[in-house]
Amino acid sequence: MSRLADALDRIRFAREYSSWLVDSIPHSEWFRSPDEVVTHLAWQVGHMAIAQYRLCLVQLRGPKPEDDAFFPPKFLDAFKRDSVPVSDPASYPSPSDIRTVYDAVHTHLLEELAGYPDADLDSPVRTPHRLCKTKIDSVRWCSAHELVHAGQVGLLRRLFGEKPLW
């Protein structure tokens, strides 16, 4: 198996796991921030979407004007790393719209990267990143990053009083 195929398998696995957790929380809870945490599900899902977009598509091939069709530019400000989640649903797209982007970015990256040239994977990332020096580093980090946020989604579930899923 190629390095890229392995990294994409890890991204698929992480997305299946995070989606399983996300799907277990009703839309009515997406903007709820328990007192113990500084986030909510809407921010987590939106952030996972922009992370996949930036770590995989932007770092490897750069942004394209046609990306706006599946990745609205307003997502960057709302869900970037340094943004502060607020509990006001009016500050964000709807849960359905966030989920649509989350799914669309994932679909696009799997389609586009399937044919990405292996020879380019050791090239430097397009935008400096603390953890990722090469393009393959960025694709590999994408799955680990998503699992970090899946853990936060799981914690939110438990703070909402939900039972473990297994």
Task: Explain how this protein is built.
The chain starts with a helix and ends in a 7-residue tail after the last helix. The protein has about 170 residues and is mainly alpha-helical. It has 5 helices and no strands. It has helices at about 5-25, 40-60, 75-80, 95-115, 135-160. Helix 1 (about 5-25) packs parallel to helix 5 (about 135-160), helix 2 (about 40-60) packs parallel to helix 4 (about 95-115) and helix 2 (about 40-60) packs antiparallel against helix 5 (about 135-160).
Would you kindly provide a brief summary of this structure?
Helix 1 packs parallel to helix 5, helix 2 runs parallel beside helix 4 and helix 2 (41-61) packs antiparallel against helix 5 (135-159). The protein contains five helices and no strands.
Key structural traits:
mainly alpha, globular, single chain, 166 residues
Terminal-residue CA separation: 31 Å
Which strand-content bin applies to the residues?
under 5%
Characterize the largest beta sheet: strand count, sense, and whether it forms a barrel: none
Output the helix-strand order.
Answer: HHHHH
Average pLDDT score: 95
Morphology: globular
Number of helices: 5
Structural class estimated from helices and strands: mainly alpha
What radius of gyration results from the CA coordinates?
Answer: 16 Å
Could you name the ranges where pLDDT drops below 50 across 5 or more consecutive residues? none
Number of strands: 0
Helix content: 55-70%
